[in-house]
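Re: [ENG-882] Designed sequences occasionally contain unexpected residues at chain ends

Forwarding the minimal case from QA. C-alpha cells:
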C-alpha cells in the first residue's frame, strides 16, 4: 500500500481543491491561488493562499494551514488515515464529493467556534424587482419561503436579497443573501452564507419536500429554482446550494424512488449533475435534464417546469400547499 509520502506525490493540491469545487473564487497570481477562504466561507479577498508547487495552503483568518492531508482533514473533519483513504480514491479517479461534515480545524482550534444557528426572524420585503422581474417569483411565494429585501436602514445582508435557511428538520438556522452589487459578485461570488455554515449537512427545502419523497425528488442548485418549482406545483424539490453533494445529502435522497437532477445549464451545473448522478445511481433511479448553456430552471415558465418534471416523474405533480410561511 502507498505511503503517505507517495500519496502526496501523486495528488496535487490543485487537484484536491478542484475535487471539492473550492477554486471558484480563487485567483491565480504566479505560483499562488489567492482569495477568500472557501473552507470557512470568509469574505476577506486575500485571507486564503495556496502555493501550488510547494503543495501548501494557509488561511490567515480561522483555518490555519498545511499540506494536502491537512486540507482534506479540515474539509472532511477526519483523521490522517481517513485522509489517506480519500487520496487513494482520488488517485483511482472516484467521483469527488462535497465534504460530509462541517469544516473543522485539524488541530481543534476551529472546533471551539462551531456554527451558531441564528433563530431570530428578520422582517423581509417580498416585493422587489429581482424576485418578481428577474426570477418570476410571486410575492406570495416569496412570503412563504421568507425571501426578500432586508430593511434598507439595516446593515444586515446589505445589498442582497435574503432567504431564510432551515435545517433538514425545518428549524431556522439563519439567512443567506444573493448579492446584487456587481463588484461584490465579482470579488466574492453571488451568494453570501453565514460563517461556518454547514452546507454539507443541509438540503434547502428538505423539511417541506419530505412528505413527497416517496414519490420522487427534484434536485436543483439554488433557492430560486426551488421556489419556482413549488410555485409550479412541484412540492418534492430540494436545493443543494451548489453543484456538489455530501454523504449526508446522498443518504437523504437515496430514500426516494427516483431523482430528477435539474441543475443549471452552465459548465459547473452539467459537470455537477454528472458527478451526482454517478454517486446516486448506486442507490436509486436518477434522471438528468440538461438545460441549454445559458439557462437556469427559473428561466422557464411555471407551465414548462411542471410539464418537464411531470414527464420525468409522473407522480410528483401535486397541488400547491397553502401559500404561507412554513415554520
Amino acid at each position: 500500500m502507498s505511503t503517505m509520502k507517495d500519496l502526496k506525490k501523486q495528488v496535487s493540491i490543485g487537484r484536491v481543491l478542484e475535487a471539492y469545487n473550492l477554486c471558484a473564487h480563487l485567483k491565480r497570481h504566479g505560483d499562488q491561488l489567492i482569495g477568500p477562504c472557501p473552507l470557512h466561507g470568509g469574505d476577506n479577498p486575500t485571507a486564503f493562499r495556496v502555493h501550488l508547487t510547494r503543495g501548501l495552503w494557509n488561511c490567515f483568518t480561522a483555518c490555519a494551514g498545511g499540506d494536502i492531508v491537512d486540507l482534506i482533514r479540515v474539509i472532511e473533519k477526519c483523521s490522517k488515515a481517513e485522509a489517506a483513504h480519500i487520496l487513494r480514491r482520488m488517485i483511482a479517479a472516484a467521483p469527488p464529493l462535497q465534504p460530509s461534515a462541517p469544516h473543522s480545524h485539524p488541530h481543534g482550534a476551529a472546533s471551539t467556534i462551531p456554527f451558531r444557528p441564528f433563530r431570530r426572524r428578520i422582517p423581509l420585503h417580498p416585493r422587489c424587482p429581482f424576485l418578481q422581474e428577474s426570477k418570476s417569483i410571486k410575492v406570495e411565494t416569496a412570503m412563504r419561503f421568507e425571501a426578500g429585501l432586508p430593511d434598507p436602514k439595516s446593515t444586515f445582508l446589505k445589498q442582497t436579497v435574503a432567504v431564510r435557511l432551515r435545517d433538514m428538520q425545518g428549524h431556522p438556522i439563519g439567512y443567506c443573501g444573493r448579492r446584487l452589487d456587481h463588484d461584490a459578485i465579482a470579488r466574492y461570488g453571488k451568494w453570501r452564507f453565514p460563517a461556518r455554515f454547514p452546507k454539507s449537512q443541509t438540503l434547502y427545502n428538505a423539511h417541506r419536500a419530505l412528505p413527497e419523497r416517496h414519490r420522487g425528488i427534484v434536485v436543483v442548485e439554488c433557492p430560486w429554482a426551488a421556489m419556482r418549482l413549488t410555485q409550479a406545483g412541484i412540492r418534492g424539490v430540494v436545493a443543494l446550494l451548489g453543484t456538489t453533494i455530501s454523504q449526508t445529502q446522498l443518504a437523504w435522497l437515496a430514500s426516494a424512488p427516483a431523482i430528477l437532477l435539474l441543475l443549471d445549464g452552465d459548465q459547473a451545473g452539467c459537470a455537477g449533475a454528472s458527478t451526482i448522478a454517478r454517486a446516486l445511481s448506486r442507490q436509486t433511479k436518477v434522471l438528468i435534464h440538461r438545460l441549454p448553456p445559458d439557462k437556469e430552471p427559473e428561466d422557464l415558465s411555471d407551465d414548462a417546469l411542471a410539464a418537464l418534471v411531470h414527464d420525468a416523474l409522473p407522480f410528483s405533480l401535486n397541488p400547491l400547499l397553502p401559500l404561507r410561511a412554513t415554520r
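QA comment: On inspection the terminal residues look reasonable. The chain is about 30% helix and 15% strand. Proposing we downgrade this to a documentation issue.
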